Amino acid sequence: MIQTDYIDVSVTLPLDNTFVYKVPDHLRELCAIGMRVLVPFGRRRVTGYVLGEQASCGPYKAKNILDVLDDHPLFPVNEILFFKWVAQYYIFPLGEVIKTALPTGLDRQDVSCVFVTLAGIKGLSSGTLSPGEACVIEFLKEKEGCTLKQLLKSSANPSIVALVRKMEKNDLLTVSAVLKREIANIKTEKFIQHSGQVPENNIRLSRKRQQILSLVREQPEISLTSLRVHVPTAATLIAPLAEAGLIKIIQRKVFRDPLGDPVEPDTPPTLTDEQAILIETVRENRHKGFVPYLLTGVTGSGKTEVYMRLVADAVKSGKTAIVLVPEIALISQTERRFRARFGEKIAVIHSMLTHGERLDQWRKLSLGKVSIVIGARSAIFSPVEDIGVIIVDEEHDSSYKQETGLRYNARDLAVVRGKMQGCPVILGSATPSVQSYQNVRDHKFSQLTLERRVNQNPLPEITLVDLKKYKDFRGTEKIITPELAIQIRACLERGNQALIFLNRRGFATFPACKECGKSLNCKFCDVTMTFHKDQDSYNCHLCGHTLPAAVNCPECKSKKIQNFGFGTEKIEAMLKSMFPDARLARIDQDSTAKKGSVLRLLKSIRNRTVDIIVGTQMLAKGHDFPYITLVGVICADLSLSLPDFRASERTFQLLAQVAGRAGRGQEPGRVIMQTYNPEHFAIESARRQDYMEFFNHEAPFRKALMYPPFTRMIQLKISGRDEKKVAQAVEQVADVLRQLLSGAPEIRESVQILGPIEASIYRISSRFRWQILIKSPSFLHVSRLVNAMRIHPEIRAIKQVTIAIDVDPYSLM
Ligand code: ADP
Ligand code: ZN
Ligand code: ZN
User: Are 372 and 311 contacting, i.e. CB atoms less than 8 angstroms apart?
Assistant: First the structure.
């Protein structure tokens, strides 16, 4: 309900300002802060977000809003300040920030459906409802759910909206966002209730029917699914019972469980001493409000248990908790562990959910029906109030950085939101980012440490194999060296599992023509195609373009394309022929493209129905598989040669993480790492699993070359389809930047403009790409310069060229 005549609205257009609109009387009751409204803008109608009430419209004439698009706020009032901070920091229009923050798939076609709940039905039969409430339930009972609009229309009650909201809060009904497209997907289920009637003597009941009746009598209501567990044929038996008036059948919407699998509740283990001390530290600091912590703990040291205890603390004191985990860990075990501990108290947000499911989760959160959200990066925008703790697991993970549109980093935003909320923020990792560890050094973060694995096992022993030794070998030995093969064999003989890691998918990664020597490149991108045997085609990993396996050389038309280079698919084939009796599974983007397939593969590892797992970095993330005792790294150097100042950091993290998958159960683990650079410090410190050695080597290098965390950067990513226009625009941008800089003596000394240069992959999907890097020890200085550039008339006049602003860039390619 809006109290004033006017509201402040942020529209979903690339504009920085908010606008004042008038709320006509008939919409005032429906409208609230945090909802979407339809507003006229110029000659268009656009979606806007209600950010506040306004007493007047100032000197301008305000237009009326046209419609209210939600029946419940999508975000709480106190999140608006956070949105504004994000917009300013990432130099991104406020309306578009909010749009990014909200679940995708919201559009004007969405409808809200109302469903009656068990409590609603019970209330009706026991007469505890108000007359108004009873009227609504009566109306709904007849239907298998109806749209909110239908309900509102059918009622003569002037305050029906407020009533429905109150009833939703009290669990008498649920309102669920249903997308028109997904309407066929609403999951409803039959629930059976006893009617209270006693069977007349002349009705003959079979034993099965009697059994059904007695099951139904035991509880207020039972789902058909549960009935079937006892009486498999229940579905056909209930209809006659209902006809005889002995039972009632109700269709009701059920929330989809994205995983389908039941999760057994767990009992919290006794904490180890290390865990207990650490949790006590956080508790003692609670009165301080916002405290950012970096929790460093070797792989398998029990960090997740610590997170769960801190979340439990928050929930116990009536607060909420946000838990961020990398996408892939979510759909498997981290979610399971949280479910086992917190049951129905959690909402889960990740990309495997359908739009409808995501909206349902969002809604549960904003209604305060659940207090814990566990999700991938976008969960940092969850509509929760009064946050008690924010957790970021595997804080070094690059998936926290969004690389399109609003290029935010959820790890960094976790700290910002925690500060605004005055709650502790825990960033955890076995291999912290250089950024976060430097924050510990600078006393911005407090460090918490877990030094030992819970099972007391030592970290796995890591052996390096110098690939240079096998350079001139032919055949498989070059790729799967005898050292690795011996260990795989030994591992299999003991009945354990081996994980073979290569961060490159496909069969052959470097197809080239035997006649003319040219590599087979993508038509639209400056990269070579990858041969995929499974699909019998060459695929471009950047744009998805494919060519048939029988393609001729585009240069000389010869048929002789040879497939050099190797990826996971080829490793799988090699292992199959080396170990014909072993059961193999491959986990990479290709093998997991179908919904549900990751889950199935992960399950097969857990249930030990596979012996050798070949995988990419998907497998390096936070999994806990107790029977993996051997990890083999096919080529440790792949990420080392990338043109990126974080190449060493990524290599170290990836290797230390993947090594950490070994020996998490009873038996100790072992790792074979094949490399061309055994003497490189990133590889050597990964071998020793020595984070400090890595950091102490890396930090001075960053400092000397003025890279983050010792300097701040904004990268401009400039691209377009017309090569000439892009090149022109790039020059213009650079000119404007230099002009602005020379006109601002107070920042001139500190700011450095590097480039423009062509991006290291110059063309992707037919777009030509350039970059300009702006560096300064002062974030304010870089930010000021880029802001001024953005609104410069010459820049605004640039057409058909995209200028993306990447604040704290992660991928420099
Ligand atoms: P990390 O997240 O640090 O890699 P995990 O939290 O996955 O480590 O813990 C590793 C294993 O130890 C898990 O199987 C977990 O259930 C178990 N664990 C954690 N804490 C305890 C404890 N206090 N007592 C017994 N087992 C524990
Ligand atoms: Zn050729
Ligand atoms: Zn391509």
Answer: yes
Residue pair 485/630 in contact (Cβ under 8 Å)? The answer is no
Q: Please, what is the average pLDDT of the chain?
A: 88
Average pLDDT of 476-497? 93
Q: Model confidence at 178, in pLDDT bands (50, 70, 90)?
A: low
Statement: residue 252 has pLDDT above 80: no
State the pLDDT at residue 802. Answer: 94
SS3 label, residue 650: helix
**Best CA proximity match to 635, nearest among 501, 471, 476, 473:** 501
Packed helices 303-316 and 273-284: angle between N→C axes, nearest 10 degrees = 40
Burial profile 165-176: b = 16 or more Cβ within 10 angstroms, e = fewer = bebbeeebbbbb
CB of residue 460 inside a 6 A radius of ligand 1 = no
Give the β-pairing of 497-501 and 628-633: parallel
The predicted pLDDT at position 109 comes to: 47
Q: Ligand 1 in contact with 123 (CB < 6 A)?
A: no
Q: How far apart are CA 27 and CA 2, in angstroms?
A: 9
- The reply to whether ligand 1 has any atom less than 6 angstroms from the CB of 271 is yes
With 70 as the cut, is the pLDDT of residue 182 above it? no
| Residue 517 Cα to ligand 2 middle (Å) | 6
Question: Buried (b) or exposed (e) across 566-596, using 16+ Cβ within 10 A?
Answer: bbbbbbbbbbeeebeebebbbbbebbbeeee
The answer, yes or no, to whether residue 183 has pLDDT greater than 50, is no
Mutate to test the pocket of ligand 1, among 454, 628, 664, 666 (most ligand atoms within 8 A of CB): 454
Query: What is the rounded distance in angstroms from the CA atom of residue 301 to the CA atom of residue 315?
Result: 24
What is the SS3 string spanning 9-30?
EEECCCCCCCEEEECCHHHHCC
The edge-to-edge listing of strands for the beta sheet with 628-633 is 461-466, 670-675, 628-633, 497-501, 612-615, 584-587
- Binding site membership of 297 for ligand 1 (Cβ less than 6 Å): yes
Question: Has residue 71 got a pLDDT over 90?
Answer: no
The token pair at 2 is: 């809006």
Shortest-distance Cα residue to atom 18 of ligand 1: 302
Rounded distance between C-alpha atoms, residue 707 and residue 550, angstroms: 46
> What three-state secondary structure class fits 605?
helix
DSSP-derived secondary structure letter, 806: E
CA gap 413, 396 in Å, rounded:
14
Atom of ligand 1 nearest to the CA of 301: 3
Residue located nearest, by CA, to atom 17 of ligand 1: 302
- 425-439, 588-602, 604-618, range with greatest mean pLDDT: 425-439
Amino acid in position 122: K
CA-proximal residue: ligand 1, atom 23 (nearest): 271
**Euclidean distance between CA atoms 276 and 283, whole angstroms:** 11
For ligand 1, whether the C-beta of 176 sits within 6 Å is no
Ligand 2: centre distance to CA 506 (Å)? 22
Q: Give me 226's structure tokens.
A: 């549960």
| Dihedral sign computed on CA atoms, order 399, 403, 405, 407 | positive
Integer Cα distance of 114 and 147 in angstroms: 6
Distances (CA, A) of 364 to 200, 347, 383, 535, 543: 44, 7, 10, 41, 37
Whole-number Å distance between alpha carbons of 446 and 329? 26
As a whole number of angstroms, the distance between CA 250 and CA 238 comes to 12
Q: Does residue 718 have a pLDDT over 80?
A: yes
User: If you take atom 4 of ligand 1, which residue's CA is the nearest one?
Assistant: 300
Q: Counting every residue, how long is the chain?
A: 813
| 171 phi-psi bin (left φ>0, alpha ψ -120 to 50, beta other) | left
Residue nearest to atom 15 of ligand 1 (CA): 302
Distances (CA, A) of 214 to 199, 209, 530, 556: 12, 9, 62, 79
pTM of the model: 0.84
